[in-house]
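Moderator note: this is an archived Q&A kept for reference. The question asked for a predicted structure of one protein chain; the sequence and the answer are reproduced below.
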Amino acid sequence: MAETKTDTPGIVVTGASGRMGQMLIQTILEHPAVRLVGAVEREGHDWVGQDVGVAMGGSAAGVVVTDDALEAFSKAQAVIDFTGPEATIAFAELAAQARAVHVIGTTGMTDAQIARLEPAARHSVQVRAGNMSLGVNLLVQLTKKVAAALDEDFDIEVIEAHHHHKVDAPSGTALMLGEAAAEGRGVALADVSDSGRDGITGARKRGDIGFSAIRGGDIVGEHDVLFAGQGERIVLRHLATDRAIFARGALKAAMWGLSREPGQYDMVDVLGL
């Protein structure tokens, strides 16, 4: 039987053993206004059946890792999800059944996969963003404004760097920035995106929005938007030095979503930008 919900919002973290999963769990455990009520991992994972605090190498947290997502979600007001595209789609359906806020930080989703999230949003609040930080979302808005102010005499390049464990490229944040630049110019990113340069590719096409990805070491996240014209360049930059900024942003999104009607939202809505 699901435990009774209290006045303190209960939150479940999916992908508990991952880098972001552990950061989210630690952030929730330290926050005075929320409580951790569930930690979810895939079936067969070593952590399943263990106290999540002990599995993380610390003291007991009073929450046992489970592979039964629906049972975990039934205890919660919100779910924070930084997993993989297909897992996130499945979790969206379960969050809708539980009427729980679903905060989605999963990256690498195709347009078709994103479209599959929509039915669940008819019954629950979804907050989805490629990046949960305040600074990055401000950068997105600035990128849109600068792109709108400059014509195609300025080439646009989104340059991103992440740790060597990251599996998708361009990053979700880079795509957010590319979408913002395209929107500022009044074009569709799919029509002007250039992320596959290798070998003799020919001259850059006027109006294209390029992407460059760097992977190495333990880089948390670095994003530049370069507007390169003749004789001058404008560079908008955000550097993340602590993964906790993403966890804090996701937690802010979860708490914000508690008072909203079902639907799809992003961090621009959460931050009121």
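Archived answer notes: The chain is about 35% helix and 20% strand.
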